[in-house]
């Protein structure tokens, strides 16, 4: 599938799933805008993407998705470089420490909600305004959701609440902007090995709560990041997003079993 002439933004693309998605979009012919808050990871990602030999179709920028001004600057820079914005992948996310409500510090709640829900809102807000204004109008917003979007014991309270909220953002966007040919889809992902989301555990984890949750979901079948990346490329193809507008697509190898 060729995405030649299309431009896609991937947040949190300094490594892991975000980088895999950006790499796949670039290989399919798209112009890509990638951002992250980690300078070191962003530099490494730039090397990976430039290895495809198309730096003219790659824009790598530092950006903080929790900051409205940073997001606005990111979108403007991408449009200035490539002329339009056809797709956004809200991938940037952080994990909590599996704390339930009684044990979750407010600071952790605020930090997780800021990245995992306010961030996608701010990026979506800026993106849909650009997608409405450009000629021809239209575009796609892909939100990277999770098993935790529909289950109560796949993470702690902060991550679970944020990922549940992401489904609301997806469905509201899908319903509000279809007349402008702007569509929105959520991907409900299971576990993946090649991501950076475990960074949160460096400061410790609520092992008792995590053990209680894992007991309800034995085993752990991981989804390859490249499979998710290929699905994003498919959604970005001509006319595909309209048919699945508002969908919440499960990609989790049926773990936990449906």
UniProtKB/TrEMBL annotation:
One Pfam family hit: adh_short
Keyword Nucleus listed: no
SUPFAM superfamilies membership: NAD(P)-binding Rossmann-fold domains (SSF51735)
Annotated PROSITE patterns: ADH_SHORT (PS00061)
A molecular function GO annotation: oxidoreductase activity
Keywords noted in UniProt: NADP, Oxidoreductase
Family indicated by similarity: Belongs to the short-chain dehydrogenases/reductases (SDR) family.
UniProt protein name: Levodione reductase
Species annotation: Tolypocladium ophioglossoides (strain CBS 100239)
């Amino acid at each position: 599938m060729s995405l030649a002439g299309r431009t896609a933004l991937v947040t949190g693309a300094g490594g892991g799933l975000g980088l895999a998605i950006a790499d796949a979009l670039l290989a399919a012919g798209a112009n890509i805008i990638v951002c992250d808050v980690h300078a070191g990871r962003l530099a490494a990602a730039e090397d990976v993407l430039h290895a495809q030999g198309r730096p003219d179709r790659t824009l790598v920028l530092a950006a903080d998705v929790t900051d409205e001004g940073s997001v606005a600057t990111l979108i403007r820079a991408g449009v200035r470089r490539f002329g339009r914005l056809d797709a956004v992948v809200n991938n940037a996310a952080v994990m909590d420490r599996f704390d339930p409500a009684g044990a979750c510090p407010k600071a952790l709640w605020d930090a997780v909600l800021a990245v995992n829900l306010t961030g996608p809102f701010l990026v979506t807000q800026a993106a849909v305004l650009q997608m409405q204004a450009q000629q021809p109008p239209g575009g796609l917003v892909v939100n990277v959701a999770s098993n935790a979007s529909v289950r109560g014991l796949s993470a702690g309270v902060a991550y679970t609440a944020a990922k549940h909220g992401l489904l609301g953002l997806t469905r509201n966007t899908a319903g509000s902007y279809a007349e402008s040919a702007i569509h929105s889809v959520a991907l409900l992902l299971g576990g993946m090995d090649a991501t950076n989301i475990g960074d949160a555990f460096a400061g410790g984890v609520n092992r008792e709560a995590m053990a209680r949750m894992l007991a309800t979901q034995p085993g752990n079948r991981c989804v390859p990041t490249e499979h998710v990346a290929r699905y994003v490329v498919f959604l970005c193809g001509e006319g595909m997003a309209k048919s699945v507008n508002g969908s919440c697509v499960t990609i989790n190898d049926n773990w936990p079993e449906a």
